[in-house]
Amino acid sequence: MLCKANNICKLNMIENELLAIDHQHIWHPYATIYSDMPMYAVEKANGVMIQLKNGKQLIDGMSSWWAALHGYNHPQLNQVAQAQLAKMSHIMFGGFTHDAAGELTQRLLKILPKNPNYPALDKIFFADSGSVAVEVAMKMAVQYQHAKGEKTRHKFATIRSGYHGDTWHAMSVCDPVTGMHGLFANSLPLQYFLPQPKTAFNEIWDETDIQPLADLLSEKHSEIAGLILEPVVQGAGGMYFYSPTYLERARELCDQYGVVLIFDEIATGFGRTGKLFATEYTQILPDIICLGKALTGGYLTLSATITTEHIAQTICQGEARCFMHGPTFMANPLACAIASASIDLLLANDWQTKIQQIEQQLSRELAPAADFASVQQVRVLGAIGVIEMKQPVDLAKLQPKLVEKGIWVRPFGRLVYIMPPFIISSSQLSQLTSALLDTLREIYHESGH
Ligand SMILES: *Cc1c(COP(=O)(O)O)cnc(C)c1O
Fold first, then answer.
1. Is the CB of residue 60 below 6 angstroms from any atom belonging to ligand 1?
2. What pLDDT score does 10 carry?
3. Does the keyword section mention Transferase (predicted)?
4. Of 60, 175, 209, 264, which is the active-site residue?
């Protein structure tokens, strides 16, 4: 790709040239730059199909990490993006506002979880990525406590196996083992980690599950600004589904001890779990909610941290007289415009029925894997299907097989999981699940059907 003065970038490299320059110079997520892991050059993507530069077509099982709800290259999203581009791609948010932010705010206010017994979530901070949304939430909690005169409260509590992003404070509340807190020990703030709730999503609530949190808050509440949780579904930290009752009990304890309750819905938001937000599996609301990933339907990076009038007001009456954060690309108009269009698309389609269908089909079609000797457990919630293996997978072996069979699935650790775009057809989903199970059968020499 050469950009000359009078020449437009063609964005059209020879495959080998691209792979070579990538291999020599470009980092990938959680990867060694000296990796000899397989790397695939993508030419384009359309609907549920990803086309590699070598012509191979893959059915997308990942939604580009929870994000691409409506698949790729969606005509309606493209159209809105082009209309916004023709107005402006970006403008600073200090001193300016714009239609794109206003329209997205109207939509979020309409769809955010509501509950007459709790203050509305209606003060929105638009940031640039999920990790930043988490940083913003944590700063809000600390500024709030500080403004209330609770100046010793600067720590956070969370549960093990969580994932909240890769920036410093977000990382400090990720699982300490998978987040390698040992490695970063001297630069990471030390937080309080509670056991992962034992009561799984469909199980009968075990009251002892909340005891560790009750004990921690009773003992250490004067140090703790906030409790941060991924409601119901723990994503990248373990793909685990736990009882919503845990969240309701946590709400009571946070109220009792003056702790800010933060729900990180960056992965779970926008229908993925079968509810528009996983919070809706509970009878409560958090004090702060973080959104990201699917917010723009997977088009651009954008996140939102939303809190209540009370918290916003307390922060703004505090020492700083303002909330201390303001990214360059705050409320990026292009991203906001696409986010509005993505929400419209979601609501215009009967997403609940669609997710139910995906859930039923995943349950049915992944079930045979539960009998594999190599498999620990199969679990499904909404449009998320997880095959937990007994041992960590060998990605170098597994990935090429999956691609060969025409599907894009990206396992990590012991987790082989799929979360396809909601627009996937039932025959495409069948191809995805059967290719996935066939691959596991081959790699692990599983017998049976
Ligand atoms: C992905 C994720 C994040 C981080 O979002 P980025 O956009 O990757 O920074 C935070 N929390 C949860 C629950 C996530 O799944």
1. no
2. 83
3. yes
4. 264
CATH T-level fold of 15-73+353-444: Aspartate Aminotransferase, domain 1 (3.90.1150)
Q: Give one DSSP letter per residue of 4-45, joined into a string.
A: -TTS-------HHHHHHHHHHH---TT--TT--S----EEEE
**Mean pLDDT, range 202-224, rounded to an integer:** 98
Work out which ligand 1 atom sits closest to the CA atom of 230: 13
Give the annotated binding-site residues: 65, 130-131, 163, 264, 293, 326-328, 410
pLDDT at 3 over 80: no
Q: What is the mean pLDDT of residues 233-256?
A: 97
- Residue 407: CB within 6 Å of ligand 1? no
Instruction: Tell me the β-bridge partners of 155.
Output: 224
Helix-strand-coil split of the chain, %, nearest 5: 40, 15, 45
Catalytic residue of the set 163, 240, 246, 257? 163
Is 2's pLDDT higher than 60? no
pLDDT in tens, 111-157: 999 999 999 999 999 999 999 999 999 999 999 999 999 999 999 99
Higher pLDDT, 359 or 2: 359
Q: Is the CB of 62 under 6 A from ligand 1?
A: no
256 three-class SS: helix
Q: Provide the CATH number for the domain formed by 81-348 in this structure.
A: 3.40.640.10
pLDDT at 408 over 90: yes
Ligand 1 pocket check for 300: Cβ under 6 Å: no
Which pLDDT does position 178 carry in this prediction?
87
6 to 2, 9, 10, 12, 86: CA distances (angstroms): 11, 10, 12, 17, 21
Write down the domain spans for the chain: 15-73+353-444, 81-348
**pLDDT tops 80 at residue 330:** yes
Query: How far away, in angstroms, is 441 Cα from ligand 1 center?
Result: 32
Give yes or no for residue 7 having a pLDDT over 90.
no
Q: Whose CA is nearest to atom 5 of ligand 1?
A: 130
